[in-house]
Design goal:
This protein has 5 helices and 11 strands, in the order αβαββββααββαββββ. The chain is of the alpha+beta class. A hairpin with a 7-residue loop joins strand 6 and strand 7. The two termini are 21 Å apart.
């Protein structure tokens, strides 16, 4: 996992079920496993064919792993990732200051809903635009600058085209991810794992 810790992401091909579980065990504990595919009976956007904008998942998960069961249309239905640290390097300390006070609601797997900082003292970030917690005018201005940089930074994104048994792992405290709209009949099927980091006692 040296590549993952250094680069913040890693792509692994032809990963079998046993190998996948071993990788997850090396990284920590899986706290949520989700079949990510179109299911119109479910309300969450992740189960729809709608596009998902740049965001991060719950900060409880240090790592996110997706394992491909069915790639769907791998050319038009990739997962895209972007290193947020590259975006934040474009900001001055004065521009970042409002974001350090910004909070985002967290729909916790482990406990009741709580809020987490956009920017933590350890350098990790948590960005989920639809869960922002009452941003002030200064914070809204800073957020618009951040979003502008995000989409201007699209040339820095990494596009992962899915193949069966391909696994993508990202550092959820560092990388953002998104996806384009899917065909309503798309068979695209990923298994997503939220992995909580285990610190040595």
């Amino acid at each position: 996992m040296e590549t993952l810790h250094r680069d913040g992401y890693q792509i692994l091909d032809d990963v079998g079920a046993n190998e996948l579980r071993s990788i997850i065990d090396l990284l920590g504990i899986s706290i949520l496993e989700t079949a990510v595919k179109i299911d119109n009976k479910k309300k969450s956007q992740v189960f729809s064919a709608e596009p998902m904008e740049w965001h991060q998942d719950s900060p409880e998960a240090r790592w996110i792993a997706w394992h491909c069961v069915n790639p769907g249309n791998s050319e038009s239905e990739p997962t895209e990732i972007l290193d947020a640290s590259l975006i934040l390097k474009q900001f001055t300390e004065k521009q970042i200051a409002p974001l350090k006070e910004l909070r985002t609601r967290v729909r916790s797997v482990m406990e009741a809903e709580y809020s987490a900082p956009f920017w933590s003292s350890n350098g990790s970030i948590h960005y989920c635009p639809w869960l922002l917690d009452s941003p002030s005018n200064d914070q809204l201005t800073a957020l618009e600058q951040f979003k502008t940089c995000l989409y201007q930074g699209d040339h820095q994104k990494i596009s992962i085209k899915w193949t069966a048994n391909r696994t993508l792992i990202i550092d959820n405290h560092r990388f953002l991810h998104k996806r384009p709209s899917l065909d309503q009949a798309s068979p695209r099927h990923l298994i997503r794992f939220w992995i909580k980091e285990q610190h040595a006692s």
